[in-house]
Amino acid sequence: MSAEDHSGAYKKVLIALLVLTVVTVWISTIHFGRAGNITVGLLVAVIKASLVTLIFMHMKWEKKWWLSFVLFPVLLVMIIIFSNFADTGLNDDFTTPALEKIPHAGSSSGAKH
Question: Would you say residue 74 lies in a domain?
């Protein structure tokens, strides 16, 4: 790690993170559809995580072989997330409460089964 002063970079990243947080909150009020909102939210989150990793964790100034130690766990997490898409894609768009799925469970008439 170098002994250079990176305080200017820290201040710029802090301002960028604050601005991106405001952008995230603002974008959450706009409806892009379910996939669009997830995509935009993940995009902003990846940008913020990249800034933190590169600047605050000093990865920008480290030797490049350290990048493999950072990217390997990210790759594993992405494999886990994307391998679950097939399962979550089969779920209903709207969850149905359990009592509505059971016949006569939600009725108050006291009908016998």
Answer: yes
In a domain, 100, yes or no: no
Question: How many helices and strands, by DSSP H and E, does the chain display?
Answer: 5, 0
In a domain, 85, yes or no: yes
Q: What's the pLDDT band for 2 if we cut at 50, 70, 90?
A: low
User: pLDDT tens-digit profile of 28-82?
Assistant: 888 888 778 888 888 999 899 888 888 877 777 777 777 777 788 888 988 888 8
Q: The domain containing residue 68 runs over which residues? A: 7-94
Indicate the number of domains in the chain. Answer: 1
